[in-house]
Amino acid sequence: MSFWSGLSAESRETFWRSLQALSATRIVISLVLLAYLMFDRRDVPTAGLYLYTETCIAYLVMAGAFALACLYVRTRFLGQVVIQIAVDIAVISVLYMAAEEGRGSLVILYLFPLAGAAILAPRVLALFSAALVTLFLLLASLYQAFMGINGMPITQAGLYGGAFFAIVLVVSHLAGKLIRQEELATRHGADLQIQLAINQIVIADVADGILVVDRDGHIFAGNPAAQQMLGLANGDSGFALSEVAALEPVAFAFSEWQQQVGPAAPGAAARAAFVTVKPYRDSGGGTAGTAAWSGRRDLAAHLKLRFARVDTVDEASERCVIFLQDVTAIENQAQELKLASMGRLTASIAHEVRNPLSAIGHATALLAEDLHEPGQARLLKIVGDNVTRVNRMVEDILQLSRKVQPNGAPLLLGPFLNELKTEFDETQGVADDIVWLGNTGAVPVRFDALHLREVVINLLTNALRYASGGVGSIRVYVVTDTAGGMELHVQDDGPGITPDVRAHLFEPFYTTSSKGTGLGLYLARELCLNNAAMLDYEYRFDAGGFGVRAASGRFVISFAQPLGARGAIGNGNRKATT
Q1: Which of 99, 184, 188, 191 is nearest to 144 (CA)?
Q2: Ranges under pLDDT 50 in the chain
Q3: Please, what is the angle between helix 374-399 and helix 328-349, to 10°?
Q4: CA 496, CA 406: separation in Å to the nearest integer?
Q5: Where does 96-229 show beta strands of DSSP type E?
Q6: Start and end of every PAS domain (predicted)?
Q7: What are 166-181's pLDDT values in tens digits?
Q8: In CA terms, which of 32, 380, 398, 513 is 20 to 30 Å from 166?
Q9: Helix (H) or strand (E) holding 145
Q10: What is the pTM of this model?
């Protein structure tokens, strides 16, 4: 029974189905033998007619019993096979002896039980069955020759026996090979099922989001983390990322990655992209894509995206995987650690840094009164500039402790921005038409006026550094986001921020300018957070020439919910003229 016990459940089921097929074939053979007896009795003598008939009828009854046993008695498989093969050989042998002429055609019937034994039984039993048939044919030939009966020659009987052995060996070898392949496929299938189950558990529980899309950005599947990050509901798929306004930053980053890697090898990766997915609220008349996107979000998510291409047989079935990581909590934790370090530093800055710094600055001013040579003046200027830079850094650090209590009085952005623009133009000495002030909304926001002034001045100063200086090269305007909140956009026509710089844009002491302290944008974001607002840099889509949608970058201040009616923004527009 080691032959049967070593098989898997799938292979055992295959053997039972094969035995059922063998039983059905046995019924067909018995019916053919009876039909042969009814239409042509010349090969059956009168003396053996009753034996032939009774044997065929008994064989038909036993064939039916064997078929029912295969269906309802699923035990002792090898025993059932041995009994059925023995009955087949015995019945064919009786019919062979009952017939006088045409015995050669009956010999062919032995192939049926011998092939069945070769397929369903161990090779030893199959060869034993072939040996029994060969021995019977040889003994029958010897008996017929001894009795003077015209029968099969001994040589022909030997040839039949050799052919039966050869057939049994070949069929048994092929059947064993198929069984081994099926066992291997079964094991691999079981391993694959286990691996798929593990993958489903890992993908479902992993904190990072996983999104499967085609080369055009149509969503096929996503794990729960991705659905939560993007605001997708279970089953949301079939629409493109670019069809949903809130997901356009993801679509743009995916398109940029495809242009970078091109037709690269599967798994090719590019630099990580950082995007912000904002809250979304259906206005009641969206496109097909927005209708399919049934999820809702309450908070914006700052996501880090990575991409990979799946190896597929053709371009039509190409799939890509987007890995999403919500880095908002990581960034906040990192900034909290840095803020704690700076807090300990702030306690001693006033005495340990500012006093010596003031002494250096005073000494430099006194030396400048006595030293007038160009070389000496240049050195004194270097010292003075660095004193000013360090003093500004100290002021920025000390300012962190002065932003704790904001003034929550309502603030109208229109008069505030007009006054701030006039002051900025005068202090920076720029033309009146460089900074373009667009729609400013009509609903007040909750933001401390001094804090907002410092944030906007910081953003305008950065924009002035990189803008072209032409008319309207710096744009400031208010828009309404899809969740009904107000956003203040500050945008310039200079080169956009690269993904590498974007990854560290709001980190303290990170700067790309030799004259910067690296604290301006960090302080601006902290001031926004202190006023329940959010400052971020976004890659957004604008309407370009000839209907082409181009992407640009801008700083966006997302205010808390307006103090007026929920979602009422006066004359605010979703898209400003750009």
Answers
A1: 99
A2: 267, 282-296, 543-550, 563-578
A3: 120
A4: 32
A5: 209-214, 219-222
A6: 202-236
A7: 999 999 888 888 888 8
A8: 32
A9: helix 123-146
A10: 0.50
